[in-house]
Request: fold
Amino acid sequence: MDRSLSTWRWHLKQPVYCLYSLAHRGSTALRTHGRSLASRESPKSFAHASLGADVPASHFRSQHLLWQQQFHRISSSPVCKAAQVAEQRTSAQGLPQAESKQLRLHNTMTKRLEEVTARPGTDNTIAMYVCGPTVYDYSHIGHARVYISFDILFRFLKRLGFNVTYVRNITDVDDKIIARAKEGCEDPSELAVRFADEFRADMATLNCLPPTMEPTATSFIPQMVNSIETIIDHGHAYASGSDVFFDVVSLPGYGRLSGRSQDDNRAGERVAVNSSKRNPEDFALWKSAKEGEPSWESPWGRGRPGWHIECSAMIRELMGPVIDIHGGGRDLEFPHHENELAQSQAASCSCDQEHMRDGTDFVRLWVHNGFVNVDSEKMSKSLGNFFTIRDVTRQYHPFVLRWFLLSSGYRAPINYTQRGLEEASERVYTVAQTLQDTANVLQENGQEAVAASSQASEELEERKGPGQELVDSAMSAMCEDLNSAAVLGAISSPLTNMNELLYTRKGRKAPGRLKELASLQQAVQQSLELLGLDMPDVPLLLQQLRLMALTRGTISEEEIQSAMDKRAAARRDKNFEAADAVRQELAQRGIALQDSPQGTSWRPTPRLDAGDDIR
Reply:
């Protein structure tokens, strides 16, 4: 990439765009032949970090089309066509050990790890539904954690050979949407469409694959009305004027998912207290129309659906009466998922079964991710302690945010701090620099490296070679409840080995050095790809990480060069105290100096003034 720093500054003002499988194809093909990840022909994932104002989704779509056109040109080039031969062999087999390993996930219902299996007669298909956002504002990093967690599950299920139907809804009618629209004198439906587009752009920024289907609640109003009628017919709901409420008392075993009693069913953030209820814990299935609010016709008069009925109706319509995995944040266990379960039991008239399983239960596995905390409190819009995805990606690369959120197991809480992001940024830079240095060495060695890379790839397919231990460790960690933290930890030793082969006298003379480098390089890349941390264009990523470090440290490259010159002069004068002071001052601003026989260079490092809180 022979581009000036000023050109990269322009790129950093653009939003992040990712090409999902296009980027993966390009990176895999180039990797297989030992080509540098620096290739100008590589399509880009996490391509442009946004530092400017929020960019409309329409701009995202236009840029996405441009990248598609570019990728078509790239994939037709002789380099990529030759590479695709080996790529097809690798893609067809994936990671061979996947066939012998079984994914186990923590089931919230049973409080234990359970194997993920496809139901008989489903063509090895896993049906997964994840509750999507209520689109009334920009998404915060609590949302990012939810959808990154289930993105890696989506990716891993496919890696294991399952066909996956992944449905993630958009709640586009809700009290919060209506309230926000009133504040801005905006039509609620237009506001919802706008923020739904912004949500999708944020997901692309974070390299989350699009779901198989993304239904909106307002597209399924008739199905919701039908579900409510069925629940009433089965004796588990009642109309009160133009409102309809679920009769919680009528349902034996209510609370078995969350462990909460009927008395705990609070009014909550979305369930309005209503004197028309028979019992305070009853929740709304249908809300009567209010002036100036969206409404639809129903047997009970004009109104709109309650929050909980939306997901139940969409799941039944799009996926059938039983799904394999239902996911969401831990805050949805109660009341939302508890009420979803109650509605689905009532609609299927299976309330007399104490614990339905094996094809008769609404959901086979309930999966919930942990909170993102700030000052030990859950991050949420309602608490006002949230940071939007765009807030964070103006300062830190989206790749860094994804890495940070995957540095803990998905079920564990994670504390959001500036120090944590700084450390994640340094780790990403170290990994990227090692991969780039390896790619450079392989390029410098021409056909010998091409042959070594091809042999390394074949050995990994046969579950052999220096990189196989990492691949096995990564797969085993993912199979045990998606242990992303263990995957990231497992790459440390291979990176150390790569740096020894790159920089030590003993390593540079080691027999089979090129093949070992290629094997470790490919193993690291495969492990990162399990987590959606693909690096198809490492030089671009390194440039962006450096520029964002300059922005955070409010320093320019010219100022750094001036400081390095000052330090060099102090060292020549043997004024080591002054030289150390220069180094320390730069470190305070997130800049580390590196001395080598070739001279002094700089790289990003965690700022010494970075605290434990982002604010």
Notes: The radius of gyration is 27 Å. Residues 1-45, 47-99, 267-272, 354-360 have pLDDT under 50 and may be disordered.
